[in-house]
Design brief:
The protein is α+β, with helices and mostly antiparallel strands. The strands form three sheets. Strands 1-2-3-6-9 form a five-stranded mixed sheet, sandwiched between helices. Strand 7 and strand 8 form a beta hairpin. Helix 1 packs across helix 3.
Amino acid sequence: MELNDQKEAISRVYVKAIASVAGFDCQDNTLDRDSIDVIFSNKNDAPYCKIEAQLKATAKQNLIKDDDSIHYSLPIKNYDDLRGKSILPRILICLLLPAGKDPNDWLTQDIEQLTIKKCAYYVSLKGLPDSTNATEITVKIPLANIFSIEALTKLMQEAESEFETGGN
């Protein structure tokens, strides 16, 4: 398996583990035409409440800047898809992995635990301005936005509230 494929696979496992413990479904979007890799849903309590997400993973270590954010270079197509109008909320989730090219450094396992090293961060690009960039744009992802069980629960509650009020 290619290194980038391994990064994508571990990012999917990461978000699915978070969603599972939080009590939400996390479905793969097999046709990634609109920059959506997974869809989170709550089929029991709010069956129409969903969040779409683009997943990215990187082992680059120079992404954290002094403004307390990750500066991630996102393809312009993904940027436009995520910032544009959508019925469902959309977020970008970026998994930061340990430095290097050895996937064995990303995960540890013993009889007590399975640990994915480092963590993922998220941001909504909704409403951000057009870009004149041709290929990529630097997106700032706040370090405070750790993609966690609590964060996903809050995002789903916000999506449900927005759905119930019709986005008003």
